[in-house]
Amino acid sequence: MVLMTARYATNAEIAKWDSLILKNPDGGNVFSSLEYSEIKKLTHYTPHYVIVGQIAVTVLEKTTPPLGKFWYLPKGPGVTSTKQLFDLLKALRPLAKKAGVFTIRVESELDRSSQPSLERHGMKKAAPIIPNPSTITIDISPSLDNILTGLPQKGRHAIRRAGRDGVTVEKVPVTEENAQLMYNLLAETAEGQFGIRSYNYYKTFWKTFEEAKLGQLFFAYFEGQVVAGAYAMVFGEKSTYKDGASIRQRTAYGASHLLQWNVIEWAKSEGALVHDFCGSPPSDEISNPEHPHHGVGLFKLSFSKEVSDFIGCYDYVLSPTRHKAWTKLGERVHRRLYYQRTKDYYY
Q1: Are 85 and 65 part of one and the same domain?
Q2: Phi-psi region of 254 (alpha: psi -120 to 50; beta: other; left: phi over 0)
Q3: pLDDT tens per residue, range 106-131
Q4: Taking Cα atoms as reference points, which of 127, 20, 122 lies closest to residue 77?
Q5: How much helix, strand and coil, in percent to the nearest 5, is found in the chain?
Q6: What's 227's domain CATH number?
Q7: Mapped to the 3 state alphabet, what secondary structure does 213-278 carry?
């Protein structure tokens, strides 16, 4: 049996990082891409690119004095079983300890049923960072006609009615004007519901993926006014609905549905076979009207009933003493100080 080892990637490997991520057992995830990790420099992460055996692992590092360093693997590592995960972490451990790391936070898209196994192996449950430990997906490998006829009735009706009523959808570039308009829509949608990052973060995110030919901004129009916006990415065979927003005063029924349908059409044309709506209530809470994301879930359920629950985030502890200090007080202090200094979120 060949033992798995971990090393930092060469410059040549980093130059083709996305292709290496796409070769991982899970087929790759856009949040493990080179583009995403470079964007995270805006929130004071230091990206590292690591090869563990045959698996490419994106590492985002935070320096957390006086405890040392914290490693976060966004939507990674790209494994498909707990055995692969445990073997990889065991191999990664010496490299991380040498770097002064006290905890590695993983976020693999393993099924939620794996959680007891992780906990038996001493891993500690942590709060999600990317907010989709549960999500809704739709198979977009069939023809567009078959996808449309296979949608739940509410979704089909909303798409067709919006088209009849004069809603139109356009792909638009991430110009300063369009980015500001999308951000304003996002801020209006988020008000009193959820927090958002700075305008510069979103603009950089949208522009970076657009320039890499992996992302697209969309606007829906009604009577000459932008009424909804969406940003989506395609990475390998999977597309991801990253950001969506609409005006509070709804003027056209189904505008967001028609917008999403255009996103699906674009994603399919770019080679995606699965479209990820990127976040929903968990499957056992999907019908709970008291869940804070119930409304979001209802919209996404009008396209697909396929809800997936993942493990979320778990900490692989390298130093129990420092990890305990981090969870008891250190993490809260760093998050609060970071927000006071930047008015942005720590992770």
Answers
A1: yes
A2: left
A3: 999 999 999 999 999 999 999 999 98
A4: 20
A5: 40, 25, 35
A6: 3.40.630.30
A7: CCEEEEEEEECCEEEEEEEEEEECCEEEEEEEEECCCCCCCCHHHHHHHHHHHHHHHCCCCEEECC
